[in-house]
C-alpha cells in the first residue's frame, strides 16, 4: 500500500481538493495514516489556540489619527473624478450618472435662468451677470441639497432601538441616501469654491465628511456604535451649521438677491456658525 | 430595517469607491479604508511579529504604503487583500530586521510596554490548571515560541496566512512574491519544522489529557 506523503496529508488537513478522494479512500483503510493525520491535526490545533489580543473597537480610528498627518496631500479637480479613466467603478456605474445628471441639471438651469432673467442693460458687464445667475442657481440647488441632508441627520439623531431587546439598529436606508447626496455634495462644494464662497464650501466640506461617515458605517449598528456615530456628528455641530446655511440660502433664494461682495455679511454669519 | 450585514461583494464595491475617491484627491475617503481594515491587518501583523509594538508599526506602515502606492492598485482588486499583502511584506522586513538586531544582543528577549517580557504562547487559556498542566503548558509555550521564531520570515508569513488566516496559496504567493508552487513548498516546510520541534510536546500533552491528568 502506497502511503500519501506528509505534504499531501498537510494539504488534506488544509482542505485542499486535489487528490482528496484518493486520500480519503486510503485513510479509511490505513490506521497508520489516520494516526499521522491526527498528529498533524493536534499540532495545528494547539498552535491555533494561541490567542491574539483583540484590537479595540475604535482601533481603525486610532490608526487613522496616527497616520493622517503623515499622508501627503493629493488634490484633484472634481472633473478628474467624473471623467477620469474608470479604474474600479465602471463608467456606467449609477453614482457617476447621478453626478453627471446633477451637472447637466445645473447647466440647463443656468441656461434657462439666463434666458428668463431680465435683459442685460447696455453697459453692464456680461460676465458679472452670468456670475450672478450661476450663483443664484447654486443657491437654490444647494439649499435643497442641505434640506435633504438635514433630514438624514435628524433621522439619525432620532433613531435608536425600538425596545431593550433590539440589539442592532439598521441604518441602511439613511446610508443609501447619504451615498446619493455625497456626489452632489462634492459637486456643490467644488462649485462653491470656484465661486469664491469659501464659507459655503467649508460647510459642505464638513457635511461631506459626515455623509462619508454615515455611508461607510456598518449597516447594522449596535446602540453603542450608533451613539458613537451620533457623537461624531454632534461634535462637528454639523446639523446647526447646515440649518443656518440652509436658512440663509432659502432667504437669498426667495429675495433673489446675492451678497454684495464675496465676503459679505451673510458669509460672515456662516463663518460664525 | 431588517437588511443582512454587508456581503464581501458589497464591501469590495464600497472599497472600490473609497479608493477611487482617494485617487480623486479626497483624503477622507482613505480614512474609511483604514478604519475598515485596520483590525484585520493588526491580527495578521500580531501573529507574524509576535508582539504588539511591532504589529502596530506594521499596520501603520502598511496603510501609509498603500496610500502612496494607490495608483498601482489593480482595478477591481480587493483592497483588503492588497493591503494585507503590503502588511505581510513589511512584517517580513521587520522580522528580518529584528532578527539581526536580536542576534547582536546578549539577551534577545523583548519587552512589552509594561516592562514584562513578551510571551505570546504563555497566554494560552488554561481553565483550572493543575500544577502538572501548568508545567506542561509552560513548556509547550516556550517550545512554540522558540519554534515559531526559528522559522524564516517567509515561512512564518506562509504559516500565519495559511493556518491562522485561511489564505489561499495564490494569496500567499502574492505576499511572498513567489510562484504558487514555491509558496506551497514554504507552507509545507513551515509545518514540517513546527512538527519536528513541537510534536513531542503536543503528544505528551495529548497523552496526559487522555490519562485524565489534564482538565
What keywords describe this structure?
heterodimer, A: 273 residues, mainly alpha, 12 helices, B: 215 residues
Written overview of the protein:
The complex is a heterodimer of chains A (273) and B (215). Chain A is mainly α and 273 residues long. In chain A, 69% of the residues lie in helices and 1% in strands. Chain A has helices at residues 6-13, 20-29, 31-48, 59-67, 78-83, 94-116, 126-158, 172-194, 198-215, 223-236, 238-255, 265-272, and strands at 169-170, 220-221. In chain A, α9 (198-215) packs antiparallel against α10. Chain B has helices spanning 8-23, 27-49, 52-68, 79-103, 131-150, 153-164, 169-176, 180-210. The longest helix of chain B has 31 residues, at 180-210. Chain B is elongated and about 60 Å long. Chain B starts with 7 loop residues before the first helix and ends in a 5-residue tail after the last helix. Mean pLDDT of chain B is 75; it is low at 106-135. At the A-B interface, α1, α3, α4, α5 and β1 of A face α1, α2, α3, α6 and α8 of B.
Strand content of chain B: under 5%
Q: State the low-pLDDT regions of chain A, or none.
A: 75-96, 120-124, 257-273
Element order of chain A: H for helix, E for strand: HHHHHHHEHHEHHH
Mean pLDDT of chain B: 75
Strand/helix succession of chain B:
HHHHHHHH
Report helical residue fraction of chain A.
Answer: 55-70%
Distance between the termini of chain A: 83 Å
Largest interface, Cβ cutoff 8 Å: A-B, 56 and 67 residues
Write the layout of secondary structure elements.
The complex is a heterodimer of chains A (273) and B (215).
Chain A: H1 6-13, H2 20-29, H3 31-48, H4 59-67, H5 78-83, H6 94-116, H7 126-158, E1 169-170, H8 172-194, H9 198-215, E2 220-221, H10 223-236, H11 238-255, H12 265-272
Antiparallel strand pairs in A: 1-2
Helix pairs in contact in A: 1-3, 2-3, 6-7, 6-8, 7-8, 7-11, 8-9, 9-10, 9-11
Chain B: H1 8-23, H2 27-49, H3 52-68, H4 79-103, H5 131-150, H6 153-164, H7 169-176, H8 180-210
